Amino acid sequence: MSGLRLGVLVSGSGSNLQSIIDAVEAGNLKSEIVCVLSNKEQAFGLERARKHGIPAYFINPKEADYDVKVLNCLQEHDVELVVLAGYLKIVDANMIEVYKGRMINIHPSLLPKFGGKGYYGIKVHEAVLAAGEKESGATVHFVEVGIDTGEIILQEKVPVYETDIPDELQKRVLHEVEHKILVKAIKKLEEERA
């Protein structure tokens, strides 16, 4: 079984990135993270990458050719699978086409519920609680032009408790599901490639 050359895009702390790094270093994934990119200069995910010797790049989203620069960087590193791990920017349609079937995203809900425009970060968990849901979770899916509409690869659930507040639910989804399911999805794609 051979691994994949991963390019990981982050906008924040990079805790999902860290779960991939840990899985690679422990030998649980055959893949290699060949680059990490961020649209936020202060994203701690860039620092996480650098600490592990992974090339890490900030690309300014205010530049007119931002999407071209991101795509060029991924191609320069011969990325085979793009992983959106807490990347809070809509991906350019051209990049989606170039990486069709080779770009995945993790979303903190059980899609198709609570997905699409405006559903990110704490907003997802606020909506889950406002709707009175009894369970939530995370989804890893392929990226297509619609927001959070691509084919689902894996989903895992967590309970929602009556006493939950959005921050508690967010932490439960992140720590109990997201960190595990993203690694599982990459492993599944490695196995399908073999």
TrEMBL record:
Query: What does UniProt give as the signal peptide span?
Result: none
Q: Where is this site: Raises pKa of active site His?
A: 148
Active site: which residues?
107
Give binding positions for N(1)-(5-phospho-beta-D-ribosyl)glycinamide: 14-16
The pathway entry for this protein reads as:
Purine metabolism; IMP biosynthesis via de novo pathway; N(2)-formyl-N(1)-(5-phospho-D-ribosyl)glycinamide from N(1)-(5-phospho-D-ribosyl)glycinamide (10-formyl THF route): step 1/1
Tell me the residue numbers annotated for binding (6R)-10-formyltetrahydrofolate. 88-91, 105
| Enzyme category, top tier | transferase
Q: What is the top-level taxon of the source organism?
A: Bacteria
- Formyl transferase N-terminal domain segment(s): 5-186
Query: What would you give as a GO molecular function for this chain, any one?
Result: phosphoribosylglycinamide formyltransferase activity
Catalytic reaction annotation: N(1)-(5-phospho-beta-D-ribosyl)glycinamide + (6R)-10-formyltetrahydrofolate = N(2)-formyl-N(1)-(5-phospho-beta-D-ribosyl)glycinamide + (6S)-5,6,7,8-tetrahydrofolate + H(+)
Give the HAMAP family listed for this entry: PurN
- Which PANTHER family does this one have? PHOSPHORIBOSYLGLYCINAMIDE FORMYLTRANSFERASE
Q: What functional role does this protein have?
A: Catalyzes the transfer of a formyl group from 10-formyltetrahydrofolate to 5-phospho-ribosyl-glycinamide (GAR), producing 5-phospho-ribosyl-N-formylglycinamide (FGAR) and tetrahydrofolate.
Q: Which family does it belong to?
A: Belongs to the GART family.
Q: What is this protein called?
A: Phosphoribosylglycinamide formyltransferase
Taxonomic source organism: Zhenhengia yiwuensis
